[in-house]
Design goal:
- The protein is an alpha+beta fold.
- It has one domain: Thiol Ester Dehydrase, Chain A, CATH 3.10.129.10.
- A six-stranded antiparallel beta sheet has the order 1-2-4-5-6-3.
- The relative contact order is 0.17.
């Protein structure tokens, strides 16, 4: 994008994204259980990760094995056909699935996504309405954990569901 208006389309739109040093967040895991770490983000003791700023995600609530995020998608997330790109929906589902798993982990243990399967139920428009994503742990294992997620629109309609598998592993120094 050149920043110059295109004939008949008006000026280009822009969006500014600000985030905190990701080390401030990741260093906050040291000595904390996954649940305590996530609660520290909710309480404002730690900043959220950069991806949360990029896509406007925020944690609404977290208990062991379950997390709820809110997001208000903007038109900057539109795909060429004029709906919110499935990548934002998938990223949000991957985030709530992974964070649900993280909420069950002891200090010194981390996770990473190894697989996600998403089912899209309906298109999503950037109309200023908040969507809600919920992740719940289905199986918490020593090496692999599985979580389910769902996204609902402001009217409660089901937008998408997912099943996420995560590799669970110890991390020295956490």
């Amino acid at each position: 994008m050149t920043g110059q208006p295109l004939p008949g389309w008006g000026p280009p739109r822009s969006r500014t994204v600000s985030w905190y040093d990701p080390a401030a967040t990741s260093n906050g895991t040291a000595g904390r259980t996954g649940l305590a770490f996530l609660q520290a983000i909710v309480d404002g003791q730690l900043p959220g990760p950069p991806i949360a700023s990029l896509f406007d995600f925020r944690i609404v609530s977290v208990v062991e094995g379950e997390i709820v995020f809110a997001c208000t998608p903007g038109e900057s997330a539109y795909n060429p056909i004029g709906v919110v790109h499935g990548g934002l929906v998938c990223t949000l589902l991957d985030s709530v699935g992974g964070c649900a798993v993280q909420s069950t982990l002891p200090a010194g243990v981390a996770y990473t996504s190894i697989e996600i399967s998403v089912r899209y139920m309906r298109p999503l428009r950037a109309d200023g309405s908040e969507i809600t994503a919920t992740g719940r742990v289905v199986k918490s294992g020593r090496r692999v954990a599985v979580a389910e997620g769902e996204i609902r629109d402001a009217a409660g309609g089901l937008v998408a569901t997912a099943v996420t598998s995560c590799l669970v592993f110890p991390v020295a120094g956490l």
